[in-house]
Amino acid sequence: MLKGLSSAVSFLTIIPSKGGDLDLVAKNMYLFPVVGALIGLVIGGAGYGLSMYVQPLIVGLVLTGGLVIITGVHHTDALCDFADGMMAKGTKEKKFKAMRDPAVGSAGVVTVVLYVAGMIASISMMRGFALLEAIIVSELMAKFSMVLQANRGSSAWEGLSSPFTLHMKNPAKLAAAAGMAVVPAIVLGGITGIMVVAATALISFLLLGASNRSFGGISGDVFGASNELVRLASLIIFASR
Questions:
Q1: pLDDT value at position 94?
Q2: Which of 10, 128, 130, 211 is the most exposed place for a label (fewest CB within 10 A)?
Q3: What is the pTM of this model?
Q4: Which range marks the domain in which residue 212 is found?
Q5: Tens digits of per-residue pLDDT, 72-114?
Q6: Domain for residue 23, yes or no?
Q7: How far apart are CA 196 and CA 182, in angstroms?
Q8: How far apart are CA 45 and CA 36, in angstroms?
Q9: Count of the separate structural domains present in the chain
Q10: What is the pLDDT of residues 176-200, one digit of tens each?
Q11: Could you give the count of Cα atoms lying within 13 Å of 88 in the half-sphere of its Cβ?
């Protein structure tokens, strides 16, 4: 388990890890919420301290940048690619080509700009323990959304998502991931936590349905987009309470 957790940390963050491969990460995908908790503690802890002394918009900018950096920009890039693929006109093949195109399309640019603006705005509306709590819960649920999609979906093509959808069909692993994500979210957030859990399920299944229609299944970019959108939705819910 420790080796699996180490490989998951290395996969989801810029922290290097000795050994491990994609198949090992996929087998231990149910531990993603643990990695989310670690990220939340690091970034949320920084936000807890900064929010006491620094202007809110600066805190929002710093923490948004910190989240993007600590995760290696991978999921933000996936959100951009997912938007380009969804907005492309034509067949599944054309949508796939748009998603895999290294050039960023207008849909991707607009989506990422709105995402970053939403992150900065929502974070800047909170401070102290409320901010720490919101970031931890948002990271827990963002990571759980990927596990949920891997359990319920199938890969559109052979690629990054394939081993995850293969190994996460185990109900026990889904239950373990749910316990590590949903229970702390509700304990920390109360009614707001329940709303965040509901939003996580809704966004995960909406993206899953949209991906099935547009691409014939899910991909690594769908996982990444779900992570980012669930995180943003969770922070907005906490900021609005």
A1: 79
A2: 128
A3: 0.92
A4: 35-240
A5: 888 888 898 888 888 888 777 777 777 777 777 788 889 999 9
A6: no
A7: 9
A8: 13
A9: 1
A10: 999 999 999 999 999 999 999 999 9
A11: 25
